[in-house]
Design a protein that fits this description.
Layout lengths: L1 H12 L14 H18 L5 H24 L5 H25 L4 H24 L15 H8 L1 H22 L2 H4 L3 H6 L2 H40 L1
Helix pairs in contact: 2-3, 2-4, 4-5, 4-7, 5-10, 7-10
Length: 236
């Protein structure tokens, strides 16, 4: 029995491309992560010159965020590197999007700076807190001192997805509304969608989900700080 189990373990380490193997950098979800970063970079490069490309590329980058997790589970290719890559990619994409919004309309500059600071600090402190608690995943908040909103956010994929989609839709809509009117009216994205009224409506509809996302970030930051402080107190 032991030898059979060992053979299965060895097979999983040296298996095919769509199984768990030794080349972690080439795991399918990690390749998707690299693609997310590339699509995001290309979207930012076209943010002020080609609304069609910007919208499609950023939407592609965001959609891949759901695909990489599904692939990791399906192919048993979850990894510490992959989790870190996913976290970093999320922060980079949101920061880049808020930066382009601030550049497009100076009225959003202070808000964008504050939102970037909250997003980065909240997730960084949360990741540190999870490491301190010995958790293998930053989403494993069960049995911790996190508040109900943070626990529900990480335990419900539907709720998390809705909040993330709401925030991204709001930022993209505001960016499209903020760019040069002469440029945006020439695009099929603008024409097919119905123009100003549609993007303004999308931003308003997404606002409640965006607000919940920021509430979760604040709650997560506060709880993470308390967990880290409690850990320090125990050690003294």
């Amino acid at each position: 029995m032991t030898s059979a189990r060992a053979r299965r373990g060895e097979k999983s380490k040296t298996g095919g491309f769509f199984t768990r193997h030794r080349s972690v950098f080439l795991y399918v979800p990690n390749l998707i992560g690299y693609g997310r970063l590339l699509a995001c970079a290309l979207a930012m490069a076209r943010a002020f010159t080609d609304v069609n490309a910007f919208t499609m590329l950023y939407a592609l980058s965001f959609a891949c965020d759901a695909i990489d997790g599904a692939c990791a589970r399906a192919f048993e290719q979850s990894s510490t590197f992959g989790a870190a890559l996913d976290m970093i990619t999320d922060r980079v994409a949101t920061t880049a999007l808020l930066t382009t919004l601030a550049c497009a309309d100076e009225r959003f500059r202070l808000s964008a700076i504050a939102l970037i600071a909250l997003d980065v600090s909240s997730h960084w402190m949360h990741d540190r807190a999870m490491t301190t608690l010995g958790k293998a995943s930053h989403k494993d908040v069960g049995g911790t001192r996190y508040g109900w909103i943070t626990r529900y956010y990480y335990e419900s994929r539907l709720f998390m997805g809705a909040c993330c989609v709401g925030a991204e839709v709001m930022y993209v809509s505001l960016h499209v509304l903020a760019i040069d009117p002469t440029e945006r009216t020439r695009t099929w994205v603008w024409v097919i969608s119905g123009g100003t009224a549609t993007f303004a409506r999308l931003a308003r509809l997404a606002a409640p989900l965006w607000a919940v996302k920021q509430w979760t970030n604040v709650a997560q930051l506060v709880s993470a700080c308390r967990i880290l402080a409690a850990s320090d107190a125990v050690e003294t």
